[in-house]
Structure formats: structure tokens, C-alpha cells
Design brief:
64% of the residues lie in helices and 8% in strands. The N and C termini lie far apart (125 Å). The longest helix has 43 residues, at 133-175. It is rod-shaped, with a radius of gyration of 35 Å. A four-stranded antiparallel sheet has the order 1-2-4-3. It has helices at residues 3-6, 13-18, 31-38, 42-51, 66-78, 96-105, 109-131, 133-175, 187-191; strands at 20-23, 26-30, 61-63, 92-94.
């Protein structure tokens, strides 16, 4: 094992997973997070990507648009995570394939080691999702059923409440004494 390999920092899977975000419906890692993992400046990572732009099609890497950046800034400002990274410039968002391509652009042992680990995490996440796809579909179906049942239950309770109110009204009416004229009296003659 070379001296360089001994000095490569190993990053935990939890750290990598914590840096995977969802943007435009894709699981991505931001340029600044990858730069930190690789031990390089974000500016240098972006320069390397721009020099090799043809290696990063839209499905490998994209830049946040103004609205996404504004949403991201507001999320960071309202988060309690202590994540106060400066967002003056829209970050590059790298998909799994983009992260893999970075190893060819950032040709250092640290970048290669981190890329291998990141790709393994992405792969495990995809396998986990695939393995539990049936469970997720069943839960989604159950959620739809519960939602429908919830509406039905609310209707049933409204009807029961209405029936209870009507029954209470009938009971009150039954308690009201009905005034009857005395037996054998003529109501017409008594009014005269």
C-alpha cells in the first residue's frame, strides 16, 4: 500500500447519505459537498467541470436555476441543522453518473476513493428501493384506501350525529305534556 493511500480520509456512509439531496426529482450531490469530501475548493471543482463540460450532460450534472437557488437559500435559512453554507452562486448538482464522471476529471487518489464510496452508497440506496418497491406500493395503496375510508367515516359520523340530534329532539318532544281538554267538556261552550 502506498503512502498516499494511507493518508486518504475515509468518509462514513452516513456522511455521504447526509449529503445526498433531491433536486428536480433527482438524487444529487452538490458541488460544495463533493469538494469538501474530495478535500478541494468548490471553485477548483467547478473549474475542472467547466474545462470538461462535454463529459457532463444534463442527466449527469445541472446547475440550479434562480428559483431553485432561492428555495434552497430559504430552506437553509430556516433549517436548524447549522448548515450555513454560503450560497452566492448556484451550485452544480451531480447525479450518480455525474459523481462517477468526476473521478475522471479530478484524477487524484482521494477523488477516486471518495467516488467509489459515493457510488456504493447510491447503489445501496437504489437496491434498497428496488427491494422494498412492493412494500412501498402496498403502503401507497393502503394510504389511498385509508384516505377513502377516512372520508366515509366522517360521513358516517355526521349521519350518526344527525340521528342523535333527531332522537334527542324526539325525546324532548315526548316529555312535553300535551294539554287536553277535560273529559266531557265542550271546548266551544267554555270559550263563550
Amino acid at each position: 500500500m502506498s503512502a498516499i493511500k494511507k493518508n486518504i480520509l475515509v468518509v462514513s456512509d452516513e456522511v455521504v447519505i447526509g449529503r445526498i439531496r433531491t433536486v428536480r426529482g433527482h438524487k444529487v450531490m452538490l458541488d460544495r459537498d463533493l469538494a469538501e469530501l474530495y478535500g478541494v475548493e468548490t471553485k477548483r471543482l467547478k473549474e475542472a467541470v467547466r474545462r470538461n463540460n462535454e463529459r457532463f450532460p444534463e442527466d449527469f450534472m445541472f446547475e440550479m436555476n434562480a428559483q431553485e437557488l432561492e428555495n434552497w437559500r430559504s430552506q437553509i435559512a430556516s433549517s436548524n441543522s447549522g448548515d450555513r453554507m454560503g450560497l452566492r452562486y448556484a451550485p452544480f448538482c451531480f447525479t450518480e453518473h455525474g459523481v462517477l464522471m468526476l473521478s475522471s476529471v479530478l484524477n487524484s487518489e482521494a477523488a477516486i476513493a471518495v467516488n467509489i464510496q459515493v457510488i456504493r452508497v447510491f447503489t445501496r440506496m437504489r437496491e434498497l428501493l428496488a427491494n422494498h418497491k412492493d412494500s412501498l406500493l402496498a403502503l401507497e395503496k393502503l394510504r389511498g384506501t385509508v384516505s377513502h375510508n377516512s372520508r366515509d367515516i366522517k360521513v358516517i359520523f355526521r349521519l350518526l350525529k344527525k340521528m342523535q340530534d333527531e332522537e334527542s329532539n324526539r325525546a324532548l318532544l315526548a316529555q312535553v305534556p300535551k294539554e287536553r281538554p277535560p273529559i266531557g267538556s265542550n271546548t266551544r261552550s267554555s270559550k263563550l
